[in-house]
C-alpha cells in the first residue's frame, strides 16, 4: 500500500509542478492559453515526463537482472583449474666445493687482507702517471706493480711459435693484452701448484701408460674468462696457452680439457660458473647435494687489465671515465682471480680444511641501462638475490658478507642499497658490504671473480654464508651464494617438489 501512495504522490507532484510553472509563465507574459495549450502543456507534457521516468526505471531493472543472471551462470560453471606452479628443478640445488682460490689485485694478493682493507675503506686508487685524460691530467687507476709482463710476453710468443710459425708473426699485442696474459699466467701457475697435492697424481705419473686410467685421477676442466673485447680466436689461443702452463706445473696434459665456450660467446662470468656446476653431474642422476657419483675437478681463471690508452680513450669518449672533466664514471683497473672447483672428495684430497660450497647463479639482464638518467630501481636485483638465496636454502639473516664488483657511482650504490634494504634487511651495509670496483678499479670478469674469492675467504673464516652480487655492468645482473657445507645458520633445503622463483630475466 505504501508503494502505491508514494507513486500517486509522485504523479501528483509532477502535475502540480508542471501546472504551476506554465500558469506562472502565462500570467507573467499576459498570454491567454487556448484549449490546445492546456491539453499540450498541462496534460500531455506531464504524462510524457512520467513515461520517460518509467522507461528509465524499467531499463535499469532489466540491466540489473541481466547482470544477476550472468553472475548466477558463472557461479554454477566450475572455474578452470589454475595452472600449477612449476616445480623447482632439483638441479638448482647442485653445488661444487671451492677447494682453493687465488687473486691478484692492486691492493695485494692476500684475500683476507684485501677484504679487511675494503671493509675499513682503506683501499684507495692512486693517480696513474702512465694514463692521462684528453687534457693531459693523470687519472685514478688500479695498477699492480710487481707484474712480469716481459716474461709473460716471451713465454706466450714462444708458445705461439711452437704451435705455428705464422702465429708468432701476429701484430704486436697492446699493453692491456700483455698485462692480462701475465695476470692469467700467475693465477694459473698458483692454482696448478695447488693441484699437485692430489694423492693420485704421483701414482698416475708412475703407472704404465696402459694402467693410468685405472688410477682414477680426475680430468681437469679449465675455464678461462678473458676480456670480452678480445676476438674469439684470441681468447681461445690464450686459454690453450694457460692449459699448457697448467701442464708445465705438473698436471698431465692429457688430463686437462680446455673449455672452448669462452671463445664463442660473451656472457656473464657467473653464468659460466653456473654452467660448470650444471654440467658437473649427469642430469638423470638427480643429486641435490654436493656429493657426485664420479670425480669432478675444474679450474676457473679470470684476468683482465684496462690499463691501456685505447681503453681509456674509449671510456672517455663514451663519458664512462672518471677524470678531470667528469666527476662520475669508473676508473680503469686490473686484476686476476681463480677458483678450483671440485666434488667434496676431490676437495678433501687437495687439502681443503673447510668445505665451502658454491651455489647456482641467478643471472638476468635489465632492459634499462643503469647509466641512463631517471629513477634507479632495485627490484630486479632483489629478485635475483632472493632467487639465489632460495636455491641455496639460505636465510637472508645468515649472510655474513655482501661482496660486489661495483664502485662508488651513485647508480650502482643506490641499487645495492635498495636491494639490501629489500632482501637483506639485517645486514650492515656499512661494514658487511664491500665494493671491489671502488678499491681496485674496473677489470671486468676479473673483478667479478675476485669478489667471489673474497666471499670464499669470508665464508671460510667466519663460518657463515656470503653473497656475491654483480651490478657493475650497465645491464647485466647476477648473484651467487657461497657457504660452508652443513652450516647451522642455513634454512632447510626445499625438496625437489618445492616451488621457487626461477632466475629473473627481462
Tags for this entry?
disordered C terminus; two-stranded antiparallel sheet; alpha/beta; 15 helices; eleven-stranded mixed sheet; single chain; 506 residues
List the helices and strands and how they pair.
Layout: H1 2-28, H2 35-76, E1 95-104, H3 111-119, E2 126-132, E3 138-141, H4 149-163, H5 175-195, H6 200-206, E4 220-225, H7 232-248, E5 256-258, H8 261-264, H9 269-278, E6 297-305, H10 309-317, E7 334-342, H11 344-349, E8 356-359, E9 362-365, H12 379-392, E10 399-404, H13 410-423, E11 433-435, H14 436-440, H15 445-462, E12 465-470, E13 476-484
Parallel strand pairs: 4-5, 4-6, 10-11, 10-12
Antiparallel strand pairs: 1-7, 1-8, 2-3, 6-7, 8-13, 9-13, 12-13
Helix pairs in contact: 1-2, 3-15, 4-5, 5-7, 12-13
Concise summary:
By secondary structure, this protein is of the alpha/beta class. The protein is built from 15 helices and 13 strands.
Describe the protein's architecture and organization.
- By secondary structure, the chain is an alpha/beta fold.
- The chain is built from 15 helices and 13 strands.
Question: Averaged pLDDT, please?
Answer: 84
Number of contiguous helices: 15
> Which structural class do the helices and strands define?
alpha/beta
- Beta-strand percentage range: 15-25%
How many distinct beta strands? 13
Could you describe the largest sheet, including whether it forms a barrel?
A: 11 strands, mixed
Global geometry: elongated
Distance between termini? 67 Å
Task: Enumerate the spans where pLDDT stays under 50 for 5 or more consecutive residues.
Answer: 75-87, 491-506
- In helices, the fraction of residues equals 40-55%
Taken in chain order, the helices and strands follow as HHEHEEHHHEHEHHEHEHEEHEHEHHEE
Q: Supply Rg.
A: 36 Å
Amino acid at each position: 500500500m505504501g508503494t502505491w501512495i508514494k507513486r500517486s504522490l509522485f504523479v501528483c507532484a509532477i502535475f502540480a509542478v508542471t501546472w504551476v510553472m506554465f500558469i506562472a509563465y502565462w500570467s507573467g507574459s499576459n498570454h491567454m492559453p487556448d484549449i490546445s495549450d492546456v491539453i499540450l502543456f498541462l496534460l500531455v507534457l506531464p504524462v510524457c515526463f512520467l513515461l520517460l521516468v518509467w522507461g528509465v526505471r524499467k531499463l535499469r531493472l532489466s540491466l540489473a537482472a541481466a547482470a544477476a543472471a550472468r553472475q548466477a551462470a558463472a557461479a554454477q560453471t566450475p572455474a578452470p583449474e589454475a595452472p600449477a606452479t612449476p616445480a623447482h628443478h632439483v638441479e638448482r640445488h647442485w653445488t661444487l666445493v671451492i677447494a682453493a682460490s687465488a687473486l691478484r689485485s692492486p691492493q695485494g694478493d692476500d684475500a683476507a687482507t684485501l677484504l679487511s682493507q675494503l671493509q675499513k675503506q682503506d683501499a684507495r686508487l692512486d693517480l696513474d702517471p702512465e694514463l692521462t685524460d684528453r687534457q693531459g691530467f693523470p687519472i685514478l687507476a688500479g695498477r699492480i706493480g710487481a707484474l712480469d709482463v716481459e716474461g709473460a710476453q716471451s713465454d706466450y710468443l714462444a708458445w705461439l711459435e711452437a704451435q705455428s710459425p705464422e702465429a708468432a708473426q701476429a701484430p704486436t699485442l697492446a699493453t692491456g693484452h700483455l698485462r692480462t696474459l701475465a695476470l692469467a699466467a700467475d693465477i694459473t701457475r698458483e692454482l696448478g701448484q695447488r693441484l699437485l697435492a692430489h694423492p693420485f697424481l704421483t701414482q698416475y705419473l708412475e703407472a704404465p701408460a696402459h694402467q693410468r686410467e685405472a688410477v682414477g685421477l680426475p680430468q681437469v676442466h679449465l675455464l678461462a674468462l678473458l676480456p670480452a673485447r678480445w676476438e674469439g680466436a684470441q681468447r681461445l689461443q690464450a686459454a690453450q696457452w694457460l692449459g699448457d702452463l697448467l701442464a708445465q706445473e705438473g698436471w698431465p696434459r692429457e688430463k686437462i680439457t680446455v673449455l672452448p665456450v669462452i671463445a664463442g660467446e660473451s656472457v656473464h662470468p657467473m653464468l659460466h660458473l653456473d654452467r660448470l656446476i650444471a654440467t658437473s653431474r649427469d642430469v638423470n642422476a638427480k643429486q641435490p647435494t654436493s656429493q657426485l657419483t664420479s670425480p669432478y675437478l675444474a679450474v676457473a681463471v679470470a684476468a683482465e687489465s684496462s690499463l691501456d690508452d685505447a681503453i681509456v680513450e674509449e671510456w672517455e669518449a663514451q663519458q664512462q671515465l672518471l677524470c678531470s672533466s667528469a666527476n662520475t664514471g669508473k676508473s680503469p683497473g686490473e686484476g686476476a682471480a681463480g677458483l678450483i672447483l671440485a666434488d667434496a672428495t676431490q676437495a678433501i684430497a687437495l687439502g681443503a680444511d673447510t668445505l665451502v660450497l658454491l651455489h647456482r647463479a641467478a643471472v638476468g639482464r635489465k632492459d634499462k641501462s643503469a647509466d641512463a638518467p631517471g629513477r634507479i630501481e632495485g627490484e630486479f636485483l632483489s629478485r635475483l638475490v632472493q632467487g639465489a638465496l632460495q636455491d641455496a636454502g639460505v636465510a637472508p639473516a645468515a649472510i655474513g658478507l655482501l661482496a660486489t664488483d661495483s664502485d662508488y657511482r651513485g647508480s650502482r650504490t643506490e641499487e645495492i642499497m635498495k636491494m639490501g634494504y629489500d632482501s637483506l634487511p639485517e645486514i650492515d651495509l656499512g661494514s658487511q658490504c664491500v665494493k671491489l670496483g671502488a678499491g681496485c678499479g674496473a677489470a671486468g670478469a676479473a673483478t667479478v671473480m675476485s669478489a667471489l674469492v673474497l666471499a670464499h675467504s669470508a665464508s671460510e673464516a667466519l663460518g657463515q654464508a656470503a653473497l656475491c652480487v654483480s651490478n657493475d655492468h650497465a645491464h647485466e645482473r647476477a648473484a651467487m651464494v657461497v657457504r660452508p657445507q652443513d652450516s647451522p645458520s642455513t634454512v632447510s633445503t626445499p625438496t625437489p617438489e618445492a616451488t621457487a622463483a626461477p632466475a629473473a630475466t627481462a
